[in-house]
Records
---
Amino acid sequence: MGPRTADVSAPARLAGPEEGIGADELALATRNHGLPLEAMRYDVTPPGLHYVLTHYDIPYVPQAGAWRLTVDGRVSRPLDLSLADLLSFPQVTTRVTLECAGNGRALLTPRPVSQPWLVEAVGTADWTGVPLRLLLEEAGAAPDAVDVVFTGADHGVERGVEQDYRRALPLAVATGGDPEVLVATTMNGAPLPPQHGRPLRLIVPGWYGMAHVKWLRSVTVSDTSFDGFQQTVAYRLRQTVDDPGEPVTRIAPRALLVPPGFPDFMSRARMVRPGPVTLEGRAWSGQAPVAAVQVSTDGGVSWEPADLEPATPRNRWAWRSWRTAWLATPGDRDLAARAVDADGRVQPLGQRWNRGGFANNAVRWVRVVCADTVADGARPRS
Amino acid sequence: MGPRTADVSAPARLAGPEEGIGADELALATRNHGLPLEAMRYDVTPPGLHYVLTHYDIPYVPQAGAWRLTVDGRVSRPLDLSLADLLSFPQVTTRVTLECAGNGRALLTPRPVSQPWLVEAVGTADWTGVPLRLLLEEAGAAPDAVDVVFTGADHGVERGVEQDYRRALPLAVATGGDPEVLVATTMNGAPLPPQHGRPLRLIVPGWYGMAHVKWLRSVTVSDTSFDGFQQTVAYRLRQTVDDPGEPVTRIAPRALLVPPGFPDFMSRARMVRPGPVTLEGRAWSGQAPVAAVQVSTDGGVSWEPADLEPATPRNRWAWRSWRTAWLATPGDRDLAARAVDADGRVQPLGQRWNRGGFANNAVRWVRVVCADTVADGARPRS
């Protein structure tokens, strides 16, 4: 007997103590990419800078006009829709900050071996599409429905299971009005780029990225709980292999700094000049809205409130900017921001570990070196 | 005395035997990104999929209309140009395949510690701009000029040297007609995205990426050889630390496969079904044009010619597609393509090592698992 599908997959594992990033993690890191954090200066992330994570390959769709979306399962009127059909429904535009559920994974100890994000797996876009609830109304979803299952065109093997990427939402979330789930056809006013789901994707404001199924081909209403791989095996908060775990859902509160000053190429350490520095960044939450951002410039000894952009309907599901003044004096400084949400949740200083490395929102420190001379930089290292 | 600029930089080094990718290499890999190789199917790389390497931060340029480009040094009429001024010169569009000089670095043994590319640091775009030779004519470059120096707005520290990113070209290259160097303002018909040099960059068809200075602010004609960091310290082909080395210049011939079949999420191993498979990919060279592409499906025992897209003026500096038929039979297969250029250069099977990991064009093998069953994939790994 020849090779089997399972032969290309290894079980999930944790990195050993001191184990460097492996060839498999690197292969993911070179394909997928984060938001360079200096680009948090833009309210809406410019094309190509928004984070991207693709489980398998990016499907090749040279003829978007031929794409079909089906709505079927426990419905009274199954739908088979072209892009033109979708555009005949009312269109809604929502500004959404998307974050990968695995953001921060590579900073955990022990490190779950998977896509090795630091904290840059985030981005914000204006997504336009038809509210999913209108499609489900049109199709007549059955009152006994439990889950709505979304299937993408991306196909591959994961932990020995060959699959199309597939996730579900409870019917109440799929038909909810706040957040309103979209079947999106444009990103920042342009057709979706291939890596963001061309020509169609789901947008679930406030939820981690795994829910926003890209290259969407079918919506299936089900009267049973969906037990597919990405729902019951992946994307669970587990402490042990046998733990069934809780599902990963909404984005935990997080604030990040635009790294101040300028970097060293290799170490990425930051340099600033002595004097006044504006510290700025972004904060977001898919749970209760961000209520405050606090900044520490002394390694966590003290935390001071930053000026936070007011909440508006426009930024309900998107990040908000914050800023504060800092007087840099010579020495090594550890800076960080942390978000506090309206339910009083504060970003933790320590890690909240789980085997998948999901939904971790520990405070991220930025080491800044404030040099007391400006002239020595022009000379090569002696 | 407080910290100095040099304190944030460590000397260049090689990874030890079995040393995994480090935190510094990972920080670069999460910011910069390659072309997912399945996207080689597009003649012109869609926005956001083209490889990106930024030494420091991406400069923030909210008001591109205020940008100025100066042309000075050994010229009779120094220029100080707005974007509108640049657009009053004749505009040329050239399709160019850009590749990072460090592409393939992470596959070398020992591995130079830097941006850890596998082989995906490549992309193709249509760049539009004014030929540099017209600007140098307008300014009246002195006949005794040697180098033309290009300064970008990206600022940082590298190996202890604080610097704006700066590179030079010999006057004959800067004023040459084939390739014709461009000061580009558009990429694929749109303004340059921030990560590709908004609002201005240099395009030097056929040269590795380090020559294509982004966020271009000044062009300085010099009667001496430029000895800046990126010219005489970085981007040299050295065997030892003390070796002055040869400069990195034009892109060595390379062919790559669009990975066939579908991948495993974590291992990135490829699966195909038994039966006919079209193998396809791209080939390019900044030296003599690609004359042939050869494919091996048996780990290098034999090489067969592929069908290569004919050379045209349009693709002189861009990749060309190639394809060939393959009958997949059950088992593990090692596939590769290699380019042969018009001067008879063949991509090597073994590495051509140097301390920077530059200009390496060793043949890249793709392991493909052809499973003799299709049904087992639907079951979880037992």
---
Amino acid sequence: MLAVQTIYLPHLHSVAVALALRGGPRYEGDGEGGLTHFLEHMLFRGAGPRSMRELMAAFEEVGGEPDAYTSEDALVLHLEEVAPARLERACELLASVLCAPRYEDLEAEREVVREELLDRAHELDDLERSAAFSGHPLARSILGTRADLARRSVDDLEGWRRQIVRSGNTALVVAGPVPPERVRAAVAPLEALPEGPALAERRPLTLPAGPSWRSRREPGERAELRLSFRCPGDAEEGAAATRVLADLLDGGPTSRVPQELVDAGLAYDAGTSLLSLPDAGLLALEVACAGSKLSAAARALLGVAEALRTGVDPAELARARLRREHRRRRLLDDAPSQAEWTVRRLLFGLPAEREAALDAEDAVDPDRLVDLARELFRRERLTAVLLGDPPRGEARRLRQRLAAWSPP
Amino acid sequence: MLAVQTIYLPHLHSVAVALALRGGPRYEGDGEGGLTHFLEHMLFRGAGPRSMRELMAAFEEVGGEPDAYTSEDALVLHLEEVAPARLERACELLASVLCAPRYEDLEAEREVVREELLDRAHELDDLERSAAFSGHPLARSILGTRADLARRSVDDLEGWRRQIVRSGNTALVVAGPVPPERVRAAVAPLEALPEGPALAERRPLTLPAGPSWRSRREPGERAELRLSFRCPGDAEEGAAATRVLADLLDGGPTSRVPQELVDAGLAYDAGTSLLSLPDAGLLALEVACAGSKLSAAARALLGVAEALRTGVDPAELARARLRREHRRRRLLDDAPSQAEWTVRRLLFGLPAEREAALDAEDAVDPDRLVDLARELFRRERLTAVLLGDPPRGEARRLRQRLAAWSPP
């Protein structure tokens, strides 16, 4: 049955409704690439009694445009600011979208997705996944290929919808000024989803035998470099310590990446990102800078990783704890963020109390972090990806530096 | 003296502090290009008794990294989520940053800004301003040129700081769960800014004799097109109607640009933007799409503008009013957005009650909008800018379409 959780925030004035289904590349089989993402687009082209235009007007009445996205392993529909009095209506609309899409004008939406494929925004992610998860469904792009897109029919989408729209494959979180008993009544239309279990992962992930490397030529003076290290997933031992490590790297202005890369004048943009799947993650250090500075930037990023293997100052950990206190306070006023975090935890059967997750981070000590850094920041866990067109000598120096990297 | 306003939101858990000074291209004279922006960067490299590192740690203690940016006519410092108990300390830090910057390591920060210049994010804005405000200081880039940047010294920055850091040139807004009397005490350190009047605008803006056109070749399959129309500024008659017009164009999923461009399959990204200065504005319709579709996208955008000249359906206006109701509700929980909007109004001596501004939008009727559309969507007010490398025939068709455009 449908997993539902209420986060009661009586002081706020809007309700966030987050609904997630397992889907995306992780669950798409051969020949199914990009189905979840295309379905995400088509779900809003009319549903039940409503044309697309009427459906959009109805969403506007309850609180605004639905935000929808497809990740590596989920399709998420999110209404961030529903008027509390219209929560029932919002849930009816979501049920209608999931259960009775009209798939109006497939060709126009195919063009929209074709346009989305031209957007470079996800290119670095795509490159990284293709290398870090090589040979696994997760290596595929969320959007699928142009060829995938070109051949999709309404029947394909409808077939896929029937596979993923099942109560056991879906989770729902309502966060805001609506008490749990009213939420239970309001979500009734969504509890009528067809019965059925969660999709199962098709293939377990194995540890990579890196380092691996991918690059793609993009004209321009600026280049983007990402160094990703395979790390524990959300359901694994070490998940909390990994989040703390990411925070030491880039949780605030005193953390290591901004200090060593930006404050030092190497780049305007540098940071970390953390992809967390239940059974695997990627902790990435990244920088965008002039192609002529790439090898210096890579040296600095690798230096940051190496330094964490040698020690973590308790004062640094105290700063991370301070940032976490601020985060707890911010979350009190941020229903959308709470809903989105929680729905993913529910969807994958993980403990879904945010406070407990933050408590687990508080409990991580310096020794644990050094041990983790020693485990993660190793050659064989590294995937390096580059987007850009650096000067030839610089590209060579970068490759050499990465090939020779072997932390002490 | 310093203009201060409190927005008391007792139900929230964090305080937003927004501080703005007149500055930016509008107030920079010949030879001063980019000074405000570079100063914005250098203000955080140590202040008063604190090194840069200590300063960042102190900001982290009060609530997080300061957000700072330079616009066409202002330098804005924004602390979005201060712990209420630490508001006094936050104000001390802001005063220290403004009054006693240490300018540590200018060369490193010069490199950071040089890197920022490589970021394409502001290129379309720069092109648009250079054409729409040709011959005026506003035509210059906010970041200044590489040559400007190369020659700046600490003395230049300090000289400029002394010009803009004056009580009469500064406005401050505190929004959150701190009552006005405590805010008054907390902001005392900022009330000690040197006395002095607001900077005066160097040159009035005249209406353009368009259409004007700028393009810049950027390799890639995708191109960005923006059609900007000179419109009333925030202090001018017609400001509220202009905001409503922007909302009809792109305020929600049922508004005109998403329907005619995205839903129709022409693009993945299309929308409007509204630049509002006190005495002038730019209302822009824009699209990013395959270069091969540019002339079709331009036709659709111009069609949207033309259609507004012929009529506005009262039902459409009712939808805009509905969106505005949602906006009022959202603002109740959004201290940073309220602080940022209000501080700009204070800085330029405009009425600073958000509710009153929304009421003025409610009062706009269809006839007023049609009149305004007829006034704005005209050849002579048009600036068209293109970033991309469309196929040659397509670029020619686009130019022809724009050159021939003359709304009925």
